[in-house]
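Anyone? Bumping this.
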Amino acid sequence: MEHTLTSGNVTADRPRPAKNYLNETTGLWSWMSTVDHKRIGIMYLGAVSFAFLLGGIFALLVRLSLLNPQHTLFGKQWVTAEMYNRFFTLHGAIMVFLFIIPSIPASLANFVLPMMLGAKDVAFPRLNLTSFYLWVAGAALAIGSMVLGAVDTGWTFYTPYSTTTDGAVGLMTLAVFILGFSSIFTGLNFIATTHKLRAPGMGWFDMPLFVWGIYATGVIQILATPVLAITMVLLLIERVFQIGIFDSRIGGDPVLFQHFFWFYSHPAVYIMILPGMAIISEIIPTFSRKTIFGYRAIAYSSVSLALLSFIVWGHHLFVAGESDLANVIFSALTFLVAIPSGVKMFNWLTTMYKGNISFETPMLYAMAFLFLFAIGGLTGIFFATLAVDIHLTDTYFVVAHFHYVMMGGTVIAFLGGLHYWWPKMTGRMYSEKWGRVACALVFIGFNMTFGSQFIMGGQGMPRRYFNYLDQFQPIHAFSTYGSWVLGSGLFLTAIYLLASLKTGPLAPDSPWGGTTMEWESSSPPVVHNFEEQPVFEHEPYDYRHRTVTHV
Amino acid sequence: MSTTTVDLHQDPHGHGGEHDPHHQHHFTTMEQQFDTSKIGMWLFLVTEVLTFGGLFAGFGLMQNKYPQEFVAAHEELKRWAGSTNTVVLLISSFTAVMAVLSARTNQGKKCAKYLWITVGFGAIFMCIKAYEYSADFAEGLFPGKFYSHHGDLIAGSHGYATFFSFYFMMTGLHGLHVLIGMGLMSWLAIRASRGEFSDKYYTPVDLVALFWHLVDMIWIYLFPLYYLIT
């Protein structure tokens, strides 16, 4: 059976199988004990969405605290400085460790990566389930630390404050330690899967670019996360035994903690953004109906970003007493990051050039990504520049910058990918109308919330401060209003996606005309993904003559 | 791509149950399954190296900060115990190799024997280590704020305490790995004596032996680092 694609709407080319991965077995235990990567991906999706909700509530509370300099609501002060410190710490820690790092790899990639390779499962299915339960244990500890007196160190746990403050820092660092292993196991699984479970005939440069992005992410997860784990152990031991490694009162070096921490946490930034870029590399060719421009350049740029991520951590320490020589070197290396990022941006734009573009919700999110990530990336160059960094560091400018990358980049791409693969994962179409409305709300709300923070930061408003000068009140209030628009957009998304599970029309196998292998399965896929082992027959993103090889 | 390759990649369950019971459904061949497991183990070993790497880096920085104290503190360690343990672990790596060789040449009983011998060497290592620790504790050589070795504590200097903090952290983490390795080897020895391993399937023995070699290798670095500082 062969057909040429002319539009995004392809009708199902065969009847839907009666049994799929969702209804082959039923009952709670069949889910909890599953080793099916698709079910684990769905469980992870539910779990990280819960974390996103929790972290989002704390974000709204942070913004609400800053609505006015008196911290009042209806004429009454409702929040103390201590509460505020806990709000932003929990927002940061939950969003980074429980949401963004596992978000795309553990949920969406878990579902589609093996299918893109034509595999039946990931390399180590039981390890995959172990990773999920480690996440659950880590989340339980993190939430436990909230109940048992919270943490107020900021998500970076900087010493000496984190070695001296009361509160449940120990429990929270233990949570981070466990979550680290959850992340390592995910990355390890994807690397082994990519190496050994590709469909017959599929070489490295025949893989979808999503796989390249997730593979590069896996490399970072494997190489960087153990260092975070041992840093957390050292922090715990310093608190208990006072060994004198981070605490300057007993001969330790607080800046050493920052080196250790950022040796992981800067690569971790790329654990967060590379999967987002990977999704954009799928959405843009599909909705432009055009072969991706510069396949190899994008593939190599993912790998080079992964490698560069390891040698730029020092730019977090420009004002922490690092030597001038080190500062200059780290500054120069940081500028290099702009090259592979730029390569990706220009290749995506060139892919769209003269494409047959349609603007369904995933594509709208991809466009939002291009716009927001460009701002996030370019403002990153401000911080690579030593003199500018000193002026802007620890102001709202840096808050705005990394939210444009993390939220404007990763979360927007996550939402795009979620809509892109939703029909495949659930077998149902969501409401396109509400999808577009929600995307617009998210985009407008996001820019209101964080665009305004660039202005505040440039004017000198320091980050993490509870009190602020009256002159910043209008911008702070505007940012808070923006957070409500953003929150309502995300809330709306949750409603229509969940509603689609009951009322959405049945999805065809390939609703967008995607050319990668996951679309050759039924929607939703059968337990082992494909009725027959798919064989690699055409390059990914080949829209000239797409052949489907089902009997 | 040609369609002739399709036959090789059909679900092994479709062959009517004649396949190896260890063959997992998502692998086409046992060779592919073995290679994949091996990649997974190597990747895990990389994370182990980096975990210890953080501690090695910390040790190096602190040694640079307190060079005299570190040299003086290492005199308190029992060099004969460290040397003996090095020899013990090296021999145990050899017996681990012999266990793999026996497994892949269908000698299950011999494989079990070599695995138990390896466990035995691990136990000797841990006994010597336990003796060493208790002797250290008796002299007041504790980590961090609990350090109380009489006479050596120089006012305002934390070099000694820091040395022993790292000593206990690194050898303790290493000891934990030895215990885990012993546990895994015992489990495999039981399986081997039941005849579960053969030239068709000996993946767990191979992987655990790899792990054991890494644990051995880390000790090879720890020994000169702590016992032979000059």
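Late reply, but here is one note on the structure posted above: Residues 2 and 8 of chain B are 12 Å apart (CA to CA).
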